[in-house]
Amino acid sequence: MNEGTRHILNRNIMIDLIGDEPDLIKQFEIDFLNQAKISLQNIADMYNTSRLHEIKEEAHFLKTSAKAVGAEQISHLLQALEVSGSEHNKPECRELILKTKVALQQIYGVISNDK
User: Fold this and answer.
1) pLDDT at residue 69, rounded to an integer
2) Is the Cβ–Cβ distance between 111 and 30 less than 8 Å?
3) Which domain holds residue 77?
4) Which of 17, 47, 69, 97 is deepest in the core (most CB within 10 A)?
């Protein structure tokens, strides 16, 4: 899968996991957004205090949830952040954190625009 084919939010993932249950899917998406907001703040705090080794674990934790709800772009970014954190690559970590924030805002936009 290349960068152009990753979905902001691939709802087929959740449909495959739990069936066509729009209300339940929406709740999982909202729960993911809430979790992601906290995790991203934790990651930013770890970055700002030069605890890059801890970023790997937080990114992995959030990546698992992102995959489950079909947040393909953010899942890919978190995978890269896991590697970057484990390699203590501060400039790359910063870039990936900022891209992850943008991807999270895009997911919020998709969920918010649903009727």
Assistant:
1) 96
2) yes
3) 3-112
4) 69
